[in-house]
Amino acid sequence: MKRIKRFQTHRIVYFIFLAIVILEIIGASFSAGFAVTSEQRDAALSNIFLGFLAVILFSVPWLLESRFKLNIPNYLEIIILFFLFGAIVLGNIHSLLVTVKGYDKFLHIVSGTLISIIGYEIIHSYNLSKSLDVRLSPGLLSIFAFCFSITLLVLWEFYEFSIDTIAFNLNNDTLRNMQRYQWINESLIYPQPYGLMDTMLDLIVGSIGALIVSLIGWRIVTHQQIKENKGVEVK
After folding, report:
1. Domain interval for residue 16
2. Tens of pLDDT along 100-155?
3. Rounded Cα gap, residues 78 and 44, in angstroms
4. Whole-number Cα distances in Å, 182 to 95, 100, 131, 175
5. Which of 18, 44, 46, 235 has its CA 20 to 30 A from that of 174?
6. How far apart (Å, rounded) are the C-alpha atoms in residues 220 and 37?
């Protein structure tokens, strides 16, 4: 019964977010069709693209489970759905990344944490399939999870840099500003241009989230292995 309830909770969250995104796509389609200026049309088309991207990404956990027979924890699937909704729908479509101060950094902390959890789940599941004498140590598990998270955070910054560069060269009237290079740095602490400061702070806060998860995971796995070893000794 508990398993059914957890499954239903995950599916309910999925279908609620999916319905909201479909309504966003319909609204953006009307906006594109009745746009008065090129800026309005470009914004609407961008929101349509982001809406379809959200639909695809929402479905990735389910596709992975059904296609590759993976067992993704339900709590992790729900967290992923909330993160994607917050990043794509609230952050980009409704521009909270621009209008709400600190929202971007909050998402990067969550992304670093979430990616590290995913990395830990992957390698820990693999580790449990091995015998005790050939399993990776908790320290190596933590290092893998941390490095896995950092790698994906860096790849995301590559993506932001590429989009800004491509948009700049294609059309100067509809520039992208994902790395905030167009903003002026008014900070009295950081002397770098705003784009560089934004990129580095994104990586730093994401790394902090990944580090916290790695340390907690190291402590939990260490405790589990101690209990397993005691059980083996008793037998």
Report:
1. 1-78
2. 888 988 988 888 888 888 888 877 777 776 666 667 788 888 898 899 889 989 99
3. 28
4. 16, 17, 54, 9
5. 18
6. 56
Distance CA 10, CA 75 (A): 8
Residues in the chain: 235
> Is the domain of 49 the same as that of 165?
no
116 shares a domain with 21: no
pTM for the complete prediction?
0.76
% of the chain surpassing 70 pLDDT: 87
Nearest to residue 74, comparing CAs of 16, 9, 119? 9
Cα 13 to Cα 189: distance, rounded to the nearest angstrom: 41
Q: What is the DSSP string of 119-180?
A: HHHHHHHHHHTS-GGGSPPHHHHHHHHHHHHHHHHHHHHHHHHHHHHHHHHH-GGG---TT-
74, two tokens? 């339900």
